[in-house]
Amino acid sequence: MKKTWTRNDIIEAISDNVGISLSDSSLMIEEIFEFILKELEKGEDVKISSFGTFSVRHKKSRVGRNPKTGIEVPITERNVVTFSSSNVLKSHFK
Fold first, then answer.
1. 78 falls in which pLDDT band (50, 70, 90)?
2. Which of 26, 43, 51, 66 is the most buried (most CB within 10 A)?
3. pLDDT at residue 55 in the model
4. How does strand 46-48 pair with strand 52-59?
5. Which residue range forms the structural domain that includes residue 29?
6. Any residues with CB less than 8 A from the CB of 52 and at least 6 apart, and which?
């Protein structure tokens, strides 16, 4: 299994590949993540062309079951962030 990328890994990769300073790269990544977060908090979808769409989905409360014990447990309603990849992104993995 490949390693999990952290924010710092992304910042360093952008700095190396684009040739900008680590601080500029960090600022750019933080601004992108902040923009996505604020749009999702407002209830807006964030579509990145040729990559995919981030959106918030509301899940109703339901009863779940602990697979080890079989005991039923209530799961509260909540909002979750989903990502749907674009057809262009999917086509890279055929």
1. very high
2. 26
3. 97
4. antiparallel
5. 1-44
6. 83, 84, 85, 86, 89
Does 59 share its domain with 36?
A: no
The DSSP output letter for 22 is H
If you average pLDDT over every residue of the chain, what do you get?
Answer: 94
**How many angstroms separate the CA atoms of 25 and 33, rounded?**
12
The continuous run of DSSP H or E covering 37 comes out as: helix 22-41
pLDDT band per the 50, 70, 90 thresholds, residue 73: very high
The percent of residues above 90 in pLDDT, for the chain, comes to 95
- State the DSSP string of 54-93: EEEEEE--EEEE-TTT--EEEE--EEEEEEEE-HHHHHTT
- Is this prediction's pTM over 0.85? no
Report, in angstroms and rounded to the nearest whole number, the Rg of the chain calculated over CA atoms: 18
